[in-house]
Design goal:
Layout lengths: L1 H13 L5 E4 L1 H7 L1 H38 L5 H26 L4 H9 L1 H17 L4 E4 L15 H12 L2 E2 L2 E2 L3 E5 L3 E3 L1 H6 L1 H13 L5 E3 L2 H10 L9 H10 L4 E10 L2 E10 L4 E10 L2 H20 L1
Parallel strand pairs: 1-2, 5-7, 5-8, 6-8
Antiparallel strand pairs: 3-4, 8-9, 9-10
Helix pairs in contact: 3-4, 3-5, 6-7, 9-12
């Protein structure tokens, strides 16, 4: 590469028409708000997946420990049943591992969805600015040894300014911004649903589903939980009146809130989309067997309906 640049510079000596500029890609990838926020979202997803994987491992270990403890008193039929259950959970653990971290897993898909569009945007912005300023060649100064370059031909600041201005929604015709949406913990009705952990699984599914729509900014869960704690609230106490107060406090455009309960082996989900004035503008009802994956699918269905409503 250095030899290539050297040849270009030699060519420049013989052709005064060639205009060269420089850009620091390493700095752009660090300071471009779009990539920074996408990486934060990706890290949040990875943290959730790691937590879910750890919970699955703990559950398998608890099944094994309980089985070893009770094994002497179990019948042969009961032993076979327990061993099958453990094997099934171990296979589920392996499937989840492959589903997330496999060759074409969710991590790869999320990286492609969240980060790659911004990288492509960086490339297009560099090309646009270079063409507008009449440059024939742009060299990435962060990857090659450049002994000297004038600030006059370094377009890094211009590229960052253009990228971040567009990402924040500032244009010549006014200010456009992402809609801020808060996904609140649903009211968990009954001991069975509270002990299951299904409420958090549903909430994560809704957050992940809504984050696929680029026009939305999903409020950090930590801020929502902090706002609840200041009011002495949790999943057993939260009501829509509390959510309306927190919409104002957190400066949200919309909130998603509802109720989740168990009816036999079925999970019932009741969700509301609430606007900044505290009005319920649309309600959704869905259900799922009392299993994790079907519940995630139900959460994704609701998220997609919300996105369709917000696009109108």
């Amino acid at each position: 590469m250095k030899k290539f640049i050297f040849l270009i510079l030699i060519s420049f000596l013989y052709s005064q028409e060639l205009k060269i500029s420089f850009v620091d890609m390493e700095r752009i990838l660090k300071e471009y708000e779009g990539i920074k926020e996408s990486k934060e979202e990706l890290n949040r997803l990875v943290k959730e997946w790691e937590e879910e994987l750890l919970n699955k491992k703990k559950f398998i270990d608890s099944l094994k420990n309980l089985y070893e403890k009770e094994r002497p008193s179990l019948s042969d039929e009961a032993k076979i049943k327990r061993e099958r259950e453990i094997k099934m959970k171990e296979e589920e653990y392996k499937r989840f591992l492959e589903e997330i971290w496999g060759k074409d897993g969710k991590l790869k898909e999320a990286t492609k969805r969240l980060v790659e569009p911004h990288v492509a945007k960086v490339q297009k912005t560099i090309e646009k600015i270079a063409k507008d300023m009449g440059y024939d060649l742009v060299i990435d100064i962060s990857k090659d040894v450049i002994l000297y370059s004038s600030q006059k031909v370094d377009i890094t600041d211009l590229v960052l300014e253009e990228l971040n201005r567009e990402y924040k929604g500032i244009s010549g015709t006014g200010v456009l911004r992402k809609l801020k949406v808060g996904v609140f913990p649903f009211y968990e009705k009954g001991e069975a649903i509270r002990a299951s952990g299904f409420g958090k699984i549903l909430r994560n599914a809704l957050r992940n589903g809504l984050s696929k729509y680029a026009a939305l900014e999903i409020k950090g869960e930590g801020e929502i939980i902090s706002a609840m704690q200041r009011r002495g609230l949790d999943e057993t106490k939260i009501e829509i009146s509390h959510v309306k107060q927190m919409i104002l406090e957190l400066v949200l455009d919309y909130a998603v809130f509802g109720k989740i309960e168990m009816e036999g082996r079925e999970i019932k989900i009741y969700a509301d989309l609430i606007d900044s004035q505290g009005n319920i503008i649309e309600s959704y009802v869905d259900s799922s067997p009392d299993e994790q994956n079907p519940l995630i699918e139900a959460g994704n269905r609701i998220a997609q309906k919300i996105i369709e409503r917000l696009k109108k």
